Amino acid sequence: MSTPIATESAVEKATLKGAMQDYWSRVKAGDIGSLPAVLGLIALCIVFGSLSSVFLTPGNFANLLTQAAAVIVIAMGLVFVLLLGEIDLSAGYTAGVTGAVLVILITNHDVPWYAALIVSIVVGASLGFGLGTLVARLGIPSFVVTLAAFLAFQGILLLLAGEGGTIRVEDKTILAVENSNLTPTLSWLFFIVVSLIYVLSGLNRINARRKAGLKSELINLWVIKTLGLLTITGLAVFALNVERSNNPDLVSLKGIPYVVPVILLLLVIGTFVLGRTAFGRHIYAVGGNAEAARRAGINVKNVRIAAFMICSALSAIAGMIFASRQNSISPTTGGSSTLLYAVGAAVIGGTSLFGGKGKMRDAILGGLVVAVIDNGMGLLGYAAGIKFIVTGLVLLISAGVDAISRKGASD
Question: Any idea which fold 33-178+292-406 has?
């Protein structure tokens, strides 16, 4: 006769096995989430790491994070719009316009950086309100509205930049976002604090669901996932704390770039909004079936307007990151391939172009994939044209996988 402990162990193992089988069943049914982005990121790192001796160095790793930061933030905003099945083609130049507002206020009017940043975010949200109103209230397709805004915002940016064409920023705080780092000690402290918050919030979520009588994630599976994530991020912090400067006596480069906590804060806020608030549930509901959401009492128009406002507000934060990285704002800020990379980042990360499916973390995963392709191929000496072709193919494959998975789920 088996003991209670042995019986519990067998049940636990069976449950863990069942959880893995359940996940695989969902993948086969089309619910693949961010799996392609994760596998693609691992494959790209292995390939570029084996072909380039520079790719896996701490210095290039830090450069990847700062290089991808602005695109990731824009992609985070686009996630809200894409979840509705809409698109915002003006997000890149919104970053340029709001970045110009930020720099002009600081440089020409001696406004403190924090006040200038608040004003630029308000300007961004106002632009998003206008776009969202045209889409939601007048029924103009978002593609047309934001394409018109793409051209108009480019013109506004040219006017703001003036004859000189470049507006320089010398505020130390703004410049530090992309160009300075936490000390190694603060980097480890930051890692420890974030890890504790993540673990405690996870345990609290599991406990709350159990008390409510809801199906909860298996504790063993959660422990495995958590340990894996903390190990990867711990190794990343270790790598960033290695000296990256070629001349440490002149200037030392160690620690997590300041922009990383900024992105992490936005990730936490965005994830909370989408996953823990009524507004987040309304976003998914409208993206899944707008008519059903309307009949359920959701104000579909207001949800659409709010999504465009959030997208443009996050673009304003991206504008600040652009200003920090470039030490200035120019007529090309937010232009060129910025928007295409941002849309690509969201879609490659797992957000559906058809609406109703996606998470904030998709923007980070997809943004890293895009940055790795751009960075790795640059290190190997490939021309810009080849990089665009490869990135376009990756985006096309991601969109194709999304379409096929949705078709499989509906069959």
Answer: ABC transporter involved in vitamin B12 uptake, BtuC (1.10.3470)
